[in-house]
Write a structure and sequence with these properties.
Helices cover about 55% and strands about 5% of the residues. It is mainly α and about 180 residues long. It has one domain. It has a two-stranded parallel sheet. Helix 2 packs parallel to helix 4. The chain starts with a helix and ends in a 12-residue tail after the last helix.
Length: about 180
């Protein structure tokens, strides 16, 4: 696949990522989860586009767990990616919240944490579906995807406006590749 396609996936992923981080800080719930889902989807498809056609990538639709499995298979030496399996599953739950059907039918409880809590937070209450994301986990996942896909985050994230860069770096504890933009 042409490098232009890989580049476009990472450009779109970076825009979704910054928009998702802004939405978390703006308490735009559940839209923030959906934006972050799309960010990770674009980044993963960008990494996969080295070995798969655009038609092959479209076949995944928005199935983040399936895309994640394919991405990990393309990165056999990066066993560290396994630690993000639960993050992918939690993030994928937000895909069904794109339309109000699931919320109207079942309700929902959704929580975003900026940083990883020291202890698990129990969400008590009715038996509505529960959705929970930790932005720190998403930040670390993004960093791991860039590393595994051999992409330089500065090439995509340094083009951002000052406002976008502010929300990219706000409370971002990931390994540092995004802090010096």
């Amino acid at each position: 696949m042409p490098m232009d396609a890989i580049h476009q996936f990472f450009v779109a992923g970076s825009q979704y990522y910054v928009a998702g981080r802004f939405a978390v800080f703006g308490w735009l719930n559940p839209v923030a989860g959906n934006l972050l889902h799309h960010a990770i989807e674009m980044y993963l498809k960008g990494g996969l586009s080295k070995t798969k056609s655009l038609k092959g990538l479209r076949a995944f639709q928005h199935n983040l767990p399936a895309i994640w499995i394919a991405f990990k298979k393309d990165q056999p030496t990066d066993a560290a990616l396994i630690r993000f399996d639960a993050v992918i599953e939690a993030l994928h739950g937000y895909e069904e919240l794109r339309y109000p059907d699931a919320i109207l039918a079942k309700g929902m409880q959704s929580t975003f944490n900026i940083l990883r809590p020291d202890a698990p937070i129990a969400i008590e209450g009715p038996k509505e579906p529960k959705y929970e994301l930790c932005l720190q986990d998403i930040d670390e996942l993004v960093e791991a995807i860039f590393h595994a896909a051999s992409r330089n985050p500065k090439a995509y994230l340094s083009m951002l406006s000052d406002c976008a860069r502010e929300f990219l770096t706000k409370d971002n504890k990931a390994g540092g590749s995004q802090h010096d933009l």
